[in-house]
Amino acid sequence: MDRILEIRDLCAFYGDHQALFDVSLDLERHHALGLVGESGSGKSTLARAVTGLLRDCTGEIRFEGELQSGRRSAQFCRKVQMVFQNPDASLNPKHRIGTILTDGMVVQGIPRKQAMDACRELIARMELPADTLERYPRSFSGGQKQRIALARALCTEPELLILDEPTSALDVSVQRKMLELINEIRRERDLTVLFISHDLGVIHAVCDDIAVLKGGRLQETGSCSAFFASPQTEYGRELLSAVPRIAYN
């Protein structure tokens, strides 16, 4: 097995509050792993720990076999990108979209004009208006902003894409189109995906594998097909029983 991400005995803290308890998890290259659980279960905390946004952690996190500790390297930041639930968290309202998207590429040494040409192709792939790069974030809908945030993450040609509830704020029809786009992009670019969601229907639509968190503790892991056929824990059965079967058929 080719593991791109290995997590061992991860504990995470916010001051005196412990948010994760000895979580061990593997993510296979080119797979999509769905991380599910109720609000407060530790899903986003795990993502923040992986990316280095949360430093108060113990245990081991390895990316492509290399132990990650402290500030993440520029190479790691290029290879691992994250899309947040609220796209405004990554879209500076004072900057045009062209600047937002090209800044990361320019930092890597890519000439601004070349970066802008690459971003025009990305914007077209995201099915956004042709003048997107010249506009400011405020002129776009929530669904369009999320596509821009996805484009921003893809600009560095990452190997691992972390998606933290990227569709939860969208209405059903926009959500469906966003999930279809994520699946298409994942196949086109051979991406590995860590998809965080409380919505099992969304996980079923995108992911190969699943990991279930409750109260900061890992409850079960396995393939999505096995989980949706027969969860192995009482908590997994409770989660699945609360979802209309039509949502994941």
Could you describe the 3D structure shown?
It is a single chain. The chain is an alpha/beta fold. It has one domain: P-loop containing nucleotide triphosphate hydrolases (Rossmann fold, 3-Layer(aba) Sandwich). 37% of the residues lie in helices and 27% in strands. The protein has 9 helices and 10 strands. Strands 6-7-8-3-9-10 form a 6-stranded mixed sheet, with helices on both faces. Strands 2-1-4-5 form a 4-stranded antiparallel sheet, with helices on one face. A hairpin with a 2-residue loop joins strand 4 and strand 5. Helix 3 crosses helix 4 and helix 3 packs parallel to helix 5. The protein is globular.
Keywords:
single chain, 249 residues, alpha/beta, Rossmann fold, six-stranded mixed β-sheet, four-stranded antiparallel β-sheet, 9 helices, 10 strands, 27% strand
SS field, number of helical segments: 9
Overall 3D form: globular
Strand order of the largest sheet: 6-7-8-3-9-10
The chain-level mean pLDDT equals: 93
- Largest sheet, strands/sense/barrel: 6 strands, mixed
Please count the beta strands (DSSP E, at least 2 residues each). 10
**CATH architecture level-2 label:** 3-Layer(aba) Sandwich
* Helix/strand/pairing category: alpha/beta
Radius of gyration: 18 Å
Beta-strand percent range? 25-35%
Uncertain residue ranges: none
Number of domains: 1
CATH superfamily: P-loop containing nucleotide triphosphate hydrolases
